[in-house]
C-alpha cells in the first residue's frame, strides 16, 4: 500500500463513537429544527433531537474560485476570513457554534472528530514541531487548547465518551505507532503494536482495539494487553476501516495481495473472512482502488480512488467490481463520502459553477441530492465535515 493510500485511509477510516450520547435539557421544552437553508443561533439548538443524521461542518466565507480566477473586489479571502463551525441538522438548517480567526498564511485548524458523548468537537493544527489541539464545547462554543509535541499523528477521541485521545501515526519512513494521551496532552500509554501495525478500530465500549497487521487483523485490550490474531488467508498489510454491522461484530478491512488491493468483511471473534470486492491491481481505471464502503438499502457504495488523486463515489457490482455513480448536480470529479444515514449518503464535493465545496445529502433511491451547507445555500466553501458519532462506524 502506498504512503498516499495510507494517509487517505487514516483520514477517512478512523472512528471513535458512542452508543448513548448524553441528552441536554432545553429550558423551554423541545425546540423546532431549523428549516433548510436557515441559520439559527447556538441557543436554539434542539439538543434532545441531535442524533443520527446531524453533522458538524467547518466553513469559510471565502468564495470558491477556479484555477487562475480572481475573487470579486472586496470579497473575503482564505487568509483574511474567519472560519465557522456549524452544527447541521438533517433538514439542512445550520447553527453557528463558534468561529476561528483568519489563518493568514499559516495552517488552518482541521476538524478531526466529534466526541462520543455528543458534546465536544476536536480540531488539530500543526505548527513549529508540535500539534495544537483545540476542543470546542458544542453547547457554549468555548474553545480549550492544549498541545502535543508531535506533528506526525492523527488524533481521535477514545470510545465510548471521548475522555482521552488516541494518537495514530501511520507507516511511512518510520514504523506506525499508537499512543493515548489525556485531554491536556499528557502521555498515558504507548500501545505495544508491531512494526507492521497499520491502523485501528475501537470497539463501541472502548475496551478493545482491532489492529491492522501484515497478515490480517489482531485484537488488543485498551490497556495494551495482546489479544488473538484474526488472519485473512492470502492477504497482507491489512487496515481496519470501520464497523460493518450495528453490533460491531464484523470489521471492514482493506488488504493487499499479489492480485491487488481488496475489501474484506472480517468477523473479529471467529468466523471466516469474506471478500467484499474483487482484487484491484490499480491498472485498469477508472477505479484504481477501493478505499471504504457503506451498505445501504439500495446497494453497497464505495469510496474509490481515481487518477491523479481524485476520489469518487462508486457502487458495487455483483462480481465484486464497481461502477462509477453520477450524483445529481455535482460538478467536480472528486466526491468524498462523509458518512451514511438511513438510505442516504452525506458527501463533500462541488455543486454549481464555483469551486467552493458543499456538504450534500444524496438519496440514491430517489436519485436526488440536496445541498446542506456551502454554495449555493450560503456561499463560501465547506472545508471539512464529520457525521454524528454513532455514524462514524
UniProtKB/TrEMBL annotation:
Signal sequence segment: 1-25
Keywords: Signal
Domain of life, source organism: Bacteria
Matches recorded under InterPro entries: 6-blade_b-propeller_TolB-like (IPR011042)
Protein name: TolB protein
Organism: Mycobacterium terramassiliense
Amino acid at each position: 500500500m502506498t504512503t498516499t493510500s495510507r494517509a487517505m485511509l487514516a483520514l477517512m477510516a478512523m472512528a471513535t463513537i458512542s452508543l448513548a450520547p448524553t441528552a441536554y435539557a432545553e429550558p423551554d421544552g423541545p425546540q423546532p429544527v431549523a428549516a433548510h437553508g436557515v441559520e439559527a443561533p447556538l441557543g436554539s439548538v434542539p439538543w434532545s433531537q441531535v442524533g443520527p443524521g446531524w453533522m458538524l461542518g467547518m466553513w469559510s466565507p471565502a468564495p470558491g474560485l477556479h484555477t487562475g480566477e480572481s475573487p470579486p473586489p472586496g470579497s473575503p479571502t482564505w487568509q483574511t476570513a474567519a472560519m465557522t463551525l456549524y452544527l447541521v441538522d438533517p433538514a439542512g438548517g445550520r447553527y453557528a457554534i463558534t468561529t476561528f480567526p483568519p489563518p493568514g498564511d499559516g495552517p488552518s485548524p482541521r476538524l478531526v472528530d466529534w466526541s462520543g458523548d455528543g458534546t465536544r468537537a476536536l480540531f488539530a493544527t500543526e505548527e513549529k514541531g508540535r500539534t495544537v489541539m483545540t476542543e470546542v464545547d458544542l453547547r457554549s462554543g468555548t474553545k480549550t487548547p492544549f498541545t502535543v509535541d508531535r506533528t506526525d499523528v492523527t488524533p481521535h477521541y477514545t470510545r465510548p465518551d471521548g475522555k482521552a485521545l488516541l494518537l495514530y501515526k501511520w507507516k511511512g519512513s518510520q514504523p506506525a505507532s499508537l499512543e493515548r494521551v489525556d485531554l491536556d496532552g499528557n502521555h498515558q500509554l504507548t500501545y505495544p503494536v508491531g512494526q507492521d501495525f497499520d491502523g485501528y478500530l475501537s470497539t463501541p465500549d472502548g475496551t478493545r482495539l482491532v489492529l491492522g497487521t501484515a497478515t490480517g487483523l489482531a485484537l488488543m485490550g485498551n490497556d495494551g494487553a495482546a489479544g488473538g490474531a484474526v488472519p485473512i488467508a492470502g492477504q497482507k498489510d491489512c487496515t481496519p476501516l470501520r464497523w460493518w454491522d450495528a453490533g460491531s461484530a464484523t470489521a471492514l478491512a482493506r488488504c493487499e495481495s499479489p492480485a491487488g488491493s481488496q475489501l474484506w468483511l472480517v468477523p473479529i471473534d471467529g468466523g471466516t473472512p469474506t471478500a467484499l470486492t474483487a482484487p484491484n491491481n490499480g491498472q485498469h481505471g477508472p477505479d484504481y482502488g477501493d478505499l471504504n464502503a457503506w451498505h445501504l438499502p439500495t446497494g453497497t457504495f464505495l469510496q474509490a480512488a481515481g487518477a491523479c488523486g481524485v476520489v469518487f463515489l462508486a457502487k458495487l457490482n455483483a462480481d465484486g467490481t464497481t461502477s462509477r455513480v453520477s450524483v445529481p448536480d455535482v460538478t467536480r470529479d472528486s466526491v468524498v463520502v462523509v458518512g451514511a444515514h438511513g438510505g442516504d449518503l452525506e458527501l463533500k464535493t462541488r455543486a454549481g459553477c464555483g469551486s467552493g465545496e458543499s456538504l450534500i445529502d444524496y438519496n440514491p433511491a430517489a436519485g436526488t441530492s440536496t445541498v446542506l451547507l456551502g454554495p449555493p445555500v450560503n456561499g463560501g466553501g465547506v472545508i471539512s465535515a464529520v457525521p454524528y458519532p454513532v455514524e462514524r462506524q
